[in-house]
UniProtKB/TrEMBL annotation, chain A:
GO terms for cellular component: plasma membrane. This is ABC-2 type transport system permease protein. Pfam families: ABC2_membrane_2. The keyword Glycoprotein does not apply. Keywords: Membrane, Transmembrane, Transmembrane helix. The keyword Transmembrane applies. The chain crosses the membrane at residues 20-41, 47-70, 105-126, 132-155, 167-189, 238-259. It comes from Halobacterium salinarum (strain ATCC 33171 / DSM 3754 / JCM 8978 / NBRC 102687 / NCIMB 764 / 91-R6). One of its GO terms (molecular function) is ABC-type transporter activity.
TrEMBL record, chain B:
This is ABC-2 type transport system ATP-binding protein. It comes from Halobacterium salinarum (strain ATCC 33171 / DSM 3754 / JCM 8978 / NBRC 102687 / NCIMB 764 / 91-R6). SMART domains: AAA (SM00382). Pfam families: ABC_tran (PF00005), DrrA1-3_C (PF13732). InterPro entries: AAA+_ATPase, ABC_transporter-like_ATP-bd, DrrA1/2-like_C, P-loop_NTPase. Belongs to the ABC transporter superfamily.
């Protein structure tokens, strides 16, 4: 249970450095601003708002979570505070878990307050309110924050310098957001139907859902059953959830393995 | 059960060998000084005990716990001042100590510990602005959290002024009197000699001497270097000096004959040399100190 001491310290560090307040302010301004702006200029319907908000949220939450975590372990290795930390009775696993828990708490609080402030506005002002859909949006925004926070800490554990962990995170994000879909397109257009690499529309749709953001977004569509996208129907929402959890656990597991085999 | 045991520990980084077949046993309750010049491998050995670094071969135990398999149990029981650590810039001294108390499930009073290491006034200051000496004192306060059964300190006096180094030594002595085993490294003999029961000297990753401080001192006190200046150094003179019982080494340095003796008397040596027909023009004697032993071991030329 020694990770709890690390998580507590990490969380209070975020409070002390005002990072928690900065993140909360960011999400409140962004989400409340979007709800108010959309309601004022377009129409007061949750479905419309969420359709517009989805894209920016899917960008903002992962980027913020990665930025908030990418130096979490590499920074301690670089500065030498890791020696102070590990001369106390913490295992390296405690460090990875403690950092994930501490920073997840920060991200979840910031996103939760952002989503709830926008929700309060929606319930007070909007004429067409779809509570289930909004709640689904809120829950999956939190899941997105959770998954990317874990990924960020896991990636941070791979490197011993902040510059290298930043490159790793940027590479990870670029690879999954831009390169992966590109690879799928290239493979789809260049292989013949009898090749083993042939991507049927079904396979391609599934492979498109592998990146964490896509898996979570499509899972949300599946669970709230409002946006009946073909992709949501092609892959079971439960499978998508499993993919998201696999990212949440898998990247920190790899990061821990690297961190644990390293000489400090 | 030894407090610390390193058995056949070697560590290689690629082609570079940091430690070669290191064997050290430290008994419970003693103060062990781990001496050696910078770069000798002292920190590597200590980092292996802390599981910061994994040995290439060999094994290490502390209080019977395997340093790799049971590192957490070890670090729960010992206090550590690691080499090259950094403090958390944004945390105050008290927050550092509180974190250590929280991590160890200890019940110490942070202010009492900061007072003991001499920085009570810095309790509410952020450690980012501390001098190296203050950081070192804060590190010692953290090491003392949980009233550990053993202190493992890597260069505890580094960054401290002479006064601070003396205070550090007196804290280590107090802890040892309480029954705490103290293992600390230093590249300065004086700091080790003053308080240690045993000392080991590490050079190029190899333990070149290990004994109780008394035995080391005795061995060196017994050695006298007699430098005899002759009109001409002859092979006969060298042979005559060598033939005296108790003479351990004779070497020639220009017109000087350098004779190392254990218990042979100065007069016997001079008489023997003069009996070969050589004329003694001058002579000087010098008793070796522990310092000489240390520098003899540690200023050896690096093997190519």
């Amino acid at each position: 249970m020694s990770w709890a001491a690390i998580a507590r310290k990490d969380f209070s560090d975020a409070v002390r450095s005002k990072a928690l307040w900065a993140l909360t302010a960011l999400f409140v301004v962004f989400m409340l601003g979007a709800a108010a702006g959309y309601g004022y200029y377009f129409d007061t319907s949750t479905l419309g708002l969420l359709t517009v908000l989805s894209g920016p949220v899917n960008f903002l939450i992962p980027i913020t979570a990665l930025l908030a975590t990418i130096h979490s372990i590499s920074g301690e290795l670089e500065s030498g505070t890791s020696k102070l930390l590990l001369s106390l009775p913490h295992t390296r696993r405690d460090v990875v878990i403690g950092k994930i828990v501490g920073r997840s708490a920060v991200m979840l609080i910031a996103v939760f307050i952002g989503v709830m402030s926008a929700g309060a506005y929606v319930f007070a002002v909007y004429t067409t309110v779809d509570a289930i859909n909004y709640l689904g949006f809120a829950v999956f925004a939190l899941l997105l924050a959770l998954v990317y926070t874990s990924i960020g800490v896991g990636l941070s554990a791979l490197a011993r310098s902040t510059s290298r962990s930043t490159i790793i995170a940027a590479g990870f994000y670029t690879l999954l957001s831009f390169v992966w879909p590109l690879i799928l397109s290239v493979v789809a257009y260049t292989t013949s139907e009898d090749s083993i690499l042939n991507l049927t529309p079904g396979r391609r749709q599934f492979l498109n859902q592998i990146p964490p953001t896509d898996a979570i977004t499509t899972a949300r569509a599946g669970f709230t059953s409002v946006m009946n996208t073909p992709a949501a129907l092609a892959t079971s929402k439960w499978v998508l959830l499993v993919i998201a959890i696999a990212w949440l656990l898998g990247v920190p597991a790899i990061g821990y393995w690297r961190f644990n085999t390293r000489d400090l | 059960m030894p407090a610390i045991e390193l058995s056949g520990v070697s560590k290689r980084y690629g082609d570079v060998t940091a430690l070669t077949d290191l064997n050290i046993t430290v008994d419970e309750g003693e103060i062990y000084g781990f001496l050696g010049p910078n770069g000798a491998g002292k920190s590597t050995a200590i980092n292996i005990l802390l599981d910061f670094v994994r040995p290439t071969t060999g094994s290490a135990t502390i209080m019977g716990y395997d340093a790799q398999a049971n590192s957490q149990a070890i670090r729960q029981r010992i206090g550590v001042l690691p080499e090259g650590f950094s403090v958390y810039d944004r945390l105050t001294a008290r927050k550092h100590v509180e974190f250590a108390i929280d991590s160890k499930n200890a019940t110490n009073d942070p202010d009492a510990l900061l007072d003991r290491v001499g920085i009570p006034e810095a309790a509410d200051r952020k450690a980012g602005g501390f001098s190296t000496g203050m950081r070192q004192r804060l590190g010692l306060a953290i090491a003392l959290v949980g009233d550990p059964e053993m202190l493992l300190l890597d260069e505890p006096s580094s960054g401290l002024d002479p006064n601070g180094a003396r205070e550090m030594r007196s804290i280590l002595t107090e802890e040892a009197n309480r029954g705490t085993t103290v293992f600390f490294s230093s590249h300065i003999l004086g700091q080790v000699e003053a308080i240690c029961d045993h000392a080991g000297i590490l050079q190029n990753g190899t333990l070149v001497a290990e004994d109780s401080i008394d035995a080391l001192r005795e061995a060196t006190d017994a050695t006298t270097t007699l430098t005899v200046t002759l009109d001409a150094v002859t092979d006969d003179a060298v042979a005559a000096a060598n033939a005296i019982p108790g003479v351990s080494e004779v070497s020639v340095d220009a017109s000087d004959l350098v004779v190392r003796t254990g218990d042979a008397s100065k007069t016997d040596v001079l008489d023997a040399i003069e009996s070969t027909g050589a004329t003694v023009q001058d002579f000087a004697t010098e008793d070796a100190s522990l310092d000489d032993v240390f520098s003899a071991y540690t200023t050896e030329e690096m093997p190519a």
